[in-house]
Structures are given as structure tokens and as C-alpha cells.
Amino acid sequence: MKQVLLLHALLLYAATGGFAAIIKVHAAANSIHQAIEQAHSGDTLLLQQGFYREHDILVSKKLTITGQGLPVIDGENKYQVFIIAADSVLIQGLQIQHIGKGSVIDMAGIKIINAKCVTIRNNRFINNTYGVYLQNSNRCYIVNNTIHSDTKGEINGGNGIHAWKCEGLGIKGNSISGHRDGIYFEFVTHSYIADNTSFENARYGLHFMFSHNDRYAQNTFMDNGAGVAVMYSRGVVMYDNAFNHNWGDASYGLLLKEITDSKIEHNRFIKNTVGIHMESTTRVDVRHNLFSENGWGVRVQASCSGSNFVENNFIGNSFDVTTNGTMMLNVFNHNYWDKYDGYDLDKNNVGDVSYYPVSVYSVITEKIPPAMILYHSLLTNIMEQVEKVMPSIIPDMLKDDQPMMKKLKL
Amino acid sequence: MRTIIKYVLFDLLRNKTIIVYALILAAITISVSGMGDNASKGLLSLLNITLLFVPIISILFSTIYFFNSVEFTELLLAQPIRRKTMLLAQYAGIAIALSIAYLAGVGIPVCILYYTAATITLLVSGLFLTLIFSALALLIFVLFKDKTKGIGAAIITALFFTLLFDGLLLSFIYSFSDYPVDKPLLGLISLNPVDLARVLVLLQLDVAVMMGYSGALFKKFMGSATGSIYTVICMLCWTVIPLIIAARVFKKKDI
Amino acid sequence: MIEITQLTKTFRKFKALDDISLHFERGQTISLLGPNGSGKTTLIKSILGLVIPGKGTIKINGAVIKDQWDYRSQIGYMPQIGRYPENMTIGQVIKMLKEIRKDCKRYDEELIEGFNIPAVQHKTMRSLSGGTRQKVSACLAFLFSPEIFILDEPTAGLDPVASELLKDKIIKERANGKLILITSHVLSDLDDITSHIVYLQEGKLLLYKTVEELKKVTGQEKLNKIIAAIMQKNHPKECLHYENNY
């Protein structure tokens, strides 16, 4: 029986061109470079604990590079570290730090170029211009990494995870902070972003451009300069994410621009300047979300059409909904509005009179922003009350005909 | 002067209206703080209350008090006292009494509940409003001989600054919406101590971002040290100028 | 002691005082008489500096009082209506005035004791009757033993005992060489104390004579009779309307 097994192993060895070797690497000048050079495809490099001053490490073979005891690879603020140009490479357990900033090329902790099925997991990326940089690479997995930069507020910095022209990516369980954009997608399709925490990034926690049919779920986006932006994309599913405290003069929980056929469901927008800002969107379904304590709950520009806002909870927002026109081609239905003070005589839990979520003062400030200077003055408080009794300025097409009497369970 | 201030205070601190004023403020402060779960929201409600109650109560109470004590004023003026001394001492007495009421009603609970920079700004603004509106009351007192007319003027003044001014400001913004009005607005706001107080406190709270671009401009200016000094100077002017005018007019007034 | 020359005061169009010239000296008790709106109170207030006259000058002890304030230390003033801060006690009011008048160390507390004020001094002003308030006003006027007394309706609202006490005090002070100016509509109260009569009508000075002179001219003994006689002589058509504040 033993002999059969051995034979089997030998056969396997023959098929792959030899035994997959495990090579231990210790910190020394150019030790990783040399190890990669000597290694064969399929080998595993075990990087031992230590401080490696190496850069521009080109991985052009199918290797597994594993750190033991979190070895540190330092770019000395001048260089980039790994460049992966082979399929099925796995990098794990490393700390990659101090990547330089190039004016000609984008320098990254790990750069994946034209490769497939690369996995980057359980690494730490500290103070890098770009953390992980994917270019024309499909089906790669970026899992459980910590990507942090101290260069806060630097809008010219790099992104935590940057993907350009990829397909089928999986980005899961990462914590990204202090970069320009936490996660940046451009021409990335059929990808999945889940369980990530993206916070305190200078610009967006997540930035989508021309990226279709992607799905992101269960992520948390907090305290980012301008929140999350999804632009010029279609078929995006946003599910069960938390958009918290994206608070600032030009900040959003979620900014949608030219988005088509997308879904926004079961998300929580809490304490953002604007919960969702929508511009030129078509057929976006907004369901079962919570909008709480935002400056503006939802800001729907008149250029949006065919969107449904159904069964959302609006609680404690300064303004629930604003718009910049009188036309409204979107539907609000069955939402719960804490400001609703209608009645429900037939006790079917649906209010008998319509709710107009746009307040008169928000209409005025939308038209002439300087009027915001009167925020919280007695005058505007009175205006709100008067308009409630006799609506005249607010867009009467924007209304919820079936406002819920009780908070919805989401 | 000190003697008169002392005795006016003696009298006012046992005045029922002042005590009720302090108690109502305290009740509102505590109930508002109990309801809101976050400090920013609680302070916002307190700001609204301060902006509404302090000007109206200060000006009305002071005006009525000045008119009611006109006979005693006459008696005191028959003593060897300068008119200016007498008038300013009375003002100081009433302003101190109202300030104490405000601090007792709002200041103490709010400092115990949430003590932040915004709280201090709120209290300073509230105190300034007290000083300003009792100074305006003094001006009304010296300008009008008749108590009823004086009270009418006090109500109109309070209404003007809490409501009408903002209406005019809004129509100004409306008619000049095609022009950059942010900077002129900054100047116009200085003409209304209530707005000045409101913006000052709002800038300290995180709702400041609601004010968008204008807010950014305001924050840049009023949030800076220069801005704070400017605001304080404006508030001081609003206190001192009515007092100077009142003292001037009072010098020539027949009692 | 008080020298008034060509005093004129106009309220809007109404002439309250019209070219009044008067001279008062020590040891005189002047009764200021005249119908409602004749300018009595305006005259008093002009002397006190409460009303700023349009024309004319007032000199006290030779010095013009315009824009001055310290001359008032020589005047004790008892207003027509005494209203005091509601929540202050009598004791506090008296103490306050004493503190204001730091220049005066010698207090004349004869009236305070006479009216038995110490017994009620813990009472707040709010709780006092009009008469008691009037007593307090009287006490304050006499407290700093001034040279000049200006008493506006001093006996109004006082009970007969207090009234008599006050009159005795006035007579006593006059004997001390003080100058006393009194307005009152109860002419009988002025009978024993007055030395001179000033009669004003529509802001004009109608009469300034000693009581003795008037008695001789009219042949009457009582003040109200004297006045009636003069009025009938000078203005037969006009009735006398004495001030009525109730």
C-alpha cells in the first residue's frame, strides 16, 4: 500500500516537472530575489521573520510566498516591492511598507499585472502609496489584508486597493484606511466586494468608475472624505453595507452618478452629510434601507428617473428628501418617515394622507444655497410649520402616498 | 454706583419673574437633554431656546422693570448722583440678574450634562444676548415716556431681531441669488445679534457642514481667531452702543 | 437761597412754565399752589434737575445748577408717589440711601422714630400701604438734614397723627433756618406752617406774597378763604380746581 502511494507521488512529480519544494528565506541582501530566481514554478518560499530591504521583486513564476512571524519588506520610501506577472501566485503573511511615490509609474506594495487567480491574503500594508494594484488581471482574491497609510488627507496619494480593467475579483475582509480612495474600481466587472472596512480615506471609501455588474455587501464605510462614489456603471448591487459618519462640507454616504439598473438594499446610512446623492440615475431600486441622523437623507436630482424608494426608514434626518426641480420621475412608497404626522383611521398601518418629504426650507436652500445661513432660525422653523398646513412651494409630485405608521423591520 | 447695583440685584434676585425664568430655562434644559441621546442635538435644541427666549424675555422684562421703577429712579435722581451713573447702575443690576438667571437655568445643567467648546460658545452667546437685549430695553426706556408704548416697542424690537430681520435677509438672498452674496451676508449678519449668536454656535456643532459653501466661508472666517474676535467685538458694540445712546438721551430727558 | 430767573419749560407745544422768576430764602415755608397742570411739579422737578428747563436759570446758593449734581446733597425730596423696589424691605431702602449718601454722617432719625419705622423695617415695600410708603418717603427726605426741603403733597394719604407729626417737624426745621417748599391741595394742612404763597396758573406766576400780606389784603384768616378771595377778585369767572390725585 505504501509503495502504491509513493508511486503515485512520483507520477505526480513527473507530471509537474518535479517535487514542489519549500525554500526558507532569511533576511539578507537580495535574499528574496535570489530565492525566486532559484525556485521553480509551484515552490513555496517561506520568508522568515526579519527586515528585508528589497524592492522591485518580480514574481514571474507560480509561487507561494508565505511570511512566518510577519517579516517586513521595506521599500525605503523610494521603491515598489512585489510585481506579480504570473498566474496563481499566493502571497500571505507579509508586512509590506514604505513604498515610494513615483511621478511616472504608480508604485504599489503588490502590483499584479496581466495575471490570473492571484491571491493576496493576511498581509499588512503600511504607509504605501498604493497598497494592492491590479491591472488587467482576472479572478484575483484580496482577502483579510490590513492596508493603512498615515499620510492622511493627501488627495494626491494612492489608493488602498486599485483595480483597473479586471474581471471576477473577490475583495473580502480587508481593512483600508488613510489612502486616497479605499478601494478604486475602473473598468472592473463581475466582482465581489464584501466585509471590508474602509475608513478615514482622503476621498472615497469606495470608488467605482465604469464598472458593471459588481456587487458589494456587508462593508463598512466610515469617516471618509467624501463617502462612497459609484459612477457611470450599471448593474451594481449594494447590499447590507453601513455608511457611517461621512461628514463634511462636500461629503456623501453614497454618491450615485449615471447609474443604471442597480439595487441598493438593506444598507444603513447614519450621520452622513447626505445619505444618498443621486444624479442622472435610471432604474435604481432603493429598498429596506435605514436613513438616520443625516443632514439630507436622500438628495434626488431632477435628472433621475425610474427609481423606486420603497420600505425605507427615515429617522432623525435634518431633511429627509430634497430635489432641485419640480419634476419627479421616481416613486416613493411605503416608507416610514418619523416626521410624518398624519393619521391612520382604518388601522391598516398605512397613513391615510400622503407625506411630502421635501421641506420648504430645503427647497429654498437647494435653489439658493446661501439661504442655509438661516438654518435653525425662528423664521425657517415657522416657515416649515406654515408649509405643512398649506403646501405651496414644495414639489407636490414628490410624495409618499402610503407612508407607514410604524418603523419597518429591516 | 456699586451700591445701586447691589440693591437692584437684591431686589431682582427675589423677583418672581426672574426666578420663574430661571426655573423654566432649567426645566427645558433638563428635559431637552434627557430626550436627545447626543450632545450635538441637545445643544441644537438649547440653541433654539436661547435664541427665542433670551432676547424676548430680556428685553420685555427689562423694559417693564425700568418703567415700573421710574418713581424710585426719580427719588434716587433727587440724590446727589450723576444721571449716567444711576442709569448704568440700573442697567448693570438688571443685566447681571438676568445673566445669573440664564446661567443658573441653562449654564449649570448644561455644563454638568455635556461640557464642550460648543457649550461654552452657547453660554457666551446667551449671555451676550442678555446684555444686548437689556441694553436695548434701556434705550427703549429712555426714548419712550409712556410705558405701554415702551412695551410695544420692546415687543417689536424682539420680533424684529428674532424674526423679521431674517425675513428681510432671506428676501435679500433671494433677490441677489445670481450674485456672490456670501461676503455681504457676513456683514449683514453682524447687524443682528441673534443671527450672530446662532451662526457662532452652529459653527461649533457638527451641523455646521449643513451650511455648505456659505458655511465653509463662515467657518473659515468666524471659526478663526480673527473671526471670534470680530464676533465678540460685534456683540460688544451691540451692547455698548445702545448704552451710550441711552446715556446721552437720558442726560437730556425730563423725568 | 434759591434764585429762579425767567424759567421757561415747554413740553412739545404746551408751556408748562412761562417766564417764572422767584427768590426763596432761608427760614421760609413756601406753599406752591395752583390748579392741575399749572406747573407746580414741573417747577419742583426743575429745581431738582429732573426736568431740564428750556430757558432761564436756577441758582442755589449762588451757583447755577445746570449739569450739576452734587448740589442735591442740600435738598431733601419727598415725591408725590413713593414707589420702591418691590422686594426690598424698608430697612434695606433706608440702608441703601444711607450708602448712597456717604457724604452725610449726621442722620436725622426723628421721623423714623416718630413713625415707629423700626418696628416694620423688615417688611417688603410690596406689602406696604400707601400711607406707610408715604411715611418712608418723608423719613428719607428728612434723613440727611438738608438745607432745603421739597415736599410734593406730603400729607396725602397720611393718617392725622402722622400728618401732625410731619407738620411739627416742618415747623421745627423752618425754625432751624431751613427753606421748605410744599405743594398740597389740602390747604388746611398748610395753615400753620406756611410763610409764603406761590400761585401758579397755566405755567405763569400769578402771585408770590407772604401770608401776612395776603391776610391783610383779604381780611381772611384761613388759607382756603384767602385763596378763594384772591381768585374771586382776580378771576371772577374761574373756579378753583385744586389738584386731585385720587
UniProtKB/TrEMBL annotation, chain A:
Secretion signal, residue range per the UniProt entry: 1-20
Coiled-coil ranges per UniProt: none
Keywords: Signal
SUPFAM superfamilies listed in its UniProt record: Pectin lyase-like
Domain Carbohydrate-binding/sugar hydrolysis, residue spans: 39-186, 193-361
Protein name per Swiss-Prot or TrEMBL: Nitrous oxidase accessory protein
Organism classification: Bacteria, Pseudomonadati, Bacteroidota, Chitinophagia, Chitinophagales
From TrEMBL, chain B:
A GO CC term assigned to this protein in UniProt: plasma membrane
Superkingdom, taxonomy of origin: Bacteria
Protein name as annotated: Cu-processing system permease protein
A GO MF label: ABC-type transporter activity
Keyword set, alphabetical order: Membrane, Transmembrane, Transmembrane helix
Residue ranges crossing the lipid bilayer per the database entry: 18-36, 42-67, 88-116, 122-144, 151-176, 196-218, 230-250
Automatic annotation (TrEMBL), chain C:
Gene Ontology MF annotations: ATP binding; ATP hydrolysis activity
Transport is among the record's keywords: yes
Keywords, alphabetical: ATP-binding, Nucleotide-binding, Transport
Domain ABC transporter: 2-227
SMART domains per UniProt: AAA
Alphabetical list of InterPro entries matching this protein: AAA+_ATPase, ABC_transporter-like_ATP-bd, ABC_Transporter_VariousFunc, P-loop_NTPase
Pfam family, one: ABC_tran
This protein's name: Cu-processing system ATP-binding protein
